[in-house]
Design goal:
This protein has about 220 residues and is mainly alpha-helical. The protein has one domain: Lysozyme (Orthogonal Bundle), CATH 1.10.530. The chain has 9 helices and 5 strands; from the N terminus they run H-E-E-H-H-E-E-E-H-H-H-H-H-H. The strands form 2 sheets. It has a 3-stranded antiparallel β-sheet. It has a two-stranded antiparallel sheet with strand order 1-2.
């Protein structure tokens, strides 16, 4: 079970649980369709990256009703110790997709679920498939670990959308690459204006360009 601080327990759990519920409803055998939820709204404006699971609308639900609790508001956008927003969870899931069977990702590493790395190198046929609930549980844990990385390494104030963009970036490139990146160096030097262009330096493999553009735009202008 994911352990959260007292301050963010309900905020983080509500955001993750609600958005993970949306993914479960929207994904079916690798092909996503709009989830039949009565409180659905229009999708975020950014398009999926090439090869992503869906261009379908991503609905929202009433978090308090879904959890049966009073959901806390999102933390201040200028306070350290952020949680990933509902929109941020959906943003990452939309770009990663959900696959229950192990597969080789775009750089040839064995992956399963919502972008969960099983091991370096191609799948060899011994890897087990996951149920949808197992895949989503892994996603929740993976997202929480990336949240911790960004909170630990970034030393300047961030808006919620800037934070979500960075978590998505770290989810894709990994902590090691983020740690040594010029993007992080310029950000921690408070050179916010230089950060969007740094996303454009991470365009390998070419299939990732659409996602990177969306992360750049999310950081720069707050457009999901």
């Amino acid at each position: 079970m994911l352990r959260l601080s007292k301050r963010t327990k309900w905020t983080g759990f509500a955001g993750l649980a609600a958005s993970l519920f949306l993914i479960l409803a929207a994904c079916d055998g690798g092909q996503a369709t709009p989830a039949p939820l009565p409180t659905a709204t229009l999708s975020p404006t950014s398009a999926p990256t090439p090869g992503s699971q869906s261009s379908a609308q991503w609905p929202t639900i009433n978090i308090s009703s879904f959890l049966g609790v009073n959901a806390a508001p999102q933390p201040s956008s200028t306070a350290h110790g952020h949680t990933l927003s509902d929109q941020g969870v959906s943003f990452i899931a939309r770009h990663e997709g959900l696959k229950e069977k192990p597969y080789d990702d775009s750089v040839g590493n064995c992956t399963v679920g919502v972008g969960h790395l099983l091991h370096m190198g191609r799948c060899n046929g011994t890897e087990a498939a996951l149920s949808t609930s197992e895949a989503l549980d892994l996603f929740k844990k993976d997202a929480a670990s990336r949240v911790e990385v960004v909170n630990r390494l970034v030393t300047v104030d961030l808006t919620q959308t800037q934070f979500d963009a960075l978590v998505s970036f770290v989810f894709n490139v990994g902590e090691g690459n983020f740690t040594k990146s010029d993007l992080l160096e310029k950000l921690n030097a408070k050179d916010y204006a230089a950060v969007p262009a740094e996303f454009d330096r991470w365009h390998i493999p070419p299939e990732i360009i659409g996602r990177r553009n969306d992360e750049r735009d999310l950081f720069a202008s707050g457009r999901y």
